[in-house]
Design brief:
Elements: E1 2-5, H1 10-13, E2 16-22, E3 26-27, E4 33-36, E5 39-46, E6 48-53, E7 60-63, E8 67-69, E9 76-81, E10 85-92, E11 97-100, E12 123-125, E13 133-134, E14 140-144, H2 147-150, E15 156-162, E16 168-170, E17 177-184, E18 187-190, E19 194-197, E20 202-204, E21 211-214, E22 221-227
Antiparallel strand pairs: 1-2, 2-10, 3-9, 4-11, 5-8, 5-10, 6-7, 6-9, 8-12, 13-14, 14-15, 15-22, 16-21, 17-20, 17-22, 18-19, 18-21
Amino acid sequence: MLYRDLIPGRLGGRFIASHIAIPQGGPVADWVHFHKVRFQMIFCRTGWARLVYEDQGPPFLMRAGDCVLQPPRIRHRVLKASDGFEVVEIGCPALHETLADHALELPTPELRPDRDFSGQRFLHAVAAQTPWTPSAFAGFEARETGMAAATGGLADARTLRPAGAPGFAAPAHGGELLFGFVLAGAATLDFEGPHALGPTDSFCIPAGEPWGLREASEDLQLLQVVLPAAAP
């Protein structure tokens, strides 16, 4: 597994965002484990992985465009990954404990999709089942993940793409995190000057600062993650 840190300085240790790649797939040497986290999500950029989670039924495939919310302390395991599997993983805090649970076998016999894990519930957002809808940015549309409801308003995540406009101007936000990751395509980020963006580039916008995109390619797809969910 190849890791690339996407937030220099990790915002003082508050957040970590990683671009993780598995060039050569196959069975994954993983075990049942859990994380002591406040927030943790995984977004699949390319390929697929077979995962299994506590009280969430049999193993399933997470494919490109899909998103998973891992609530605090939910037991889980990665079983297998395809060649060229890539994900973006975002966690808070940046440093958190990962503990094994060798006593638990997955899948568990009971299906509890609405189980509460410290105010959050498990989420598997399937891109192929989610329509594109108008976004908060004029001329762009979004594929929502349902993250806001699953986290009780703690966070939200969506994919953005052009729908008639090459860019937008965004107001300043007052949240903890506004993170962007280019899944495909290209654009220019306007924030204290122009910044060219291409596939797998990322950015964080500080609170209180306006920003925007322009010159977006037709195939641009941008993952946007915000905390709290109400941040633009």
